[in-house]
Write a structure and sequence with these properties.
- The protein is mainly alpha-helical.
- Helix content is 68%, strand content 0%.
- It contains nine helices and no strands.
- Helix 4 packs antiparallel against helix 5, helix 5 packs antiparallel against helix 9 and helix 7 packs across helix 8.
- The chain is elongated.
- The chain starts with a helix and ends in a 6-residue tail after the last helix.
């Protein structure tokens, strides 16, 4: 039987986004394979998490491309980006809590590319006068990551309807980021 690595990763992502502390045995069961087969593909949890990181980065980059963040008003681009990120938000939420991914010299350069694209979108919004200038683009980027993760957790727990994900995240972020007319 040939094991589809992508299917194993997607099964692992689905489980780990619901239960971040799942064991490798649980991951193997969720993927419908033996633990030995899982270990042939991923030497251990760290290797699995690194593979999930690569998947997450690829999905974030695909969402950035789909959202066309350099087109039109920045606020609309943020809404398109949140909508495009929704299918990957649960995986992003899991990765967001995996501190070892963001420490040391082994940090994947993909995160820097994604951060730069998010930051550029917020900078563009500031330069066009749409977004407040007292909040740095880097902070708005971090806020977006946090809201995406929180939204994914809230949907998974049934506290937020899946159909409300994009609206709630984009409007909360933009409601705090939009420049207000001064009296």
């Amino acid at each position: 039987m040939t094991v589809d690595r992508e299917q194993v990763l997607r099964s692992a992502a689905a489980l780990l986004t619901r239960k971040a502390t799942a064991t490798m045995d649980e991951v193997a069961r969720a993927a419908g394979i033996s633990r030995a087969t899982l270990h042939r593909h991923f030497a251990g949890r760290d290797a699995l998490v690194r593979a999930l990181e690569s998947l997450g980065i690829a999905e974030c980059e695909a969402a950035l491309e789909e959202a066309r963040t350099d087109e039109g008003p920045a606020a609309e681009a943020v809404r398109r980006l949140v909508r495009a990120m929704e299918p990957s938000a649960a995986l992003l939420a899991f990765l967001y809590t995996e501190n070892q991914l963001f420490e040391g010299e082994e940090q994947n350069e993909g995160w820097a590319r994604i951060d730069a694209a998010f930051t550029e979108l917020f900078r563009r919004g500031q330069e066009s006068g749409e977004f407040r200038i007292d909040l740095t683009p880097a902070w708005l980027t971090e806020a977006l990551y946090g809201l995406l993760a929180s939204g994914a957790w809230a949907v998974a727990e049934g506290r937020v309807a899946r159909n409300d994900f994009t609206h709630m995240i984009a409007e909360l972020l933009l409601g705090g980021a939009l420049r207000r007319e001064e009296p």
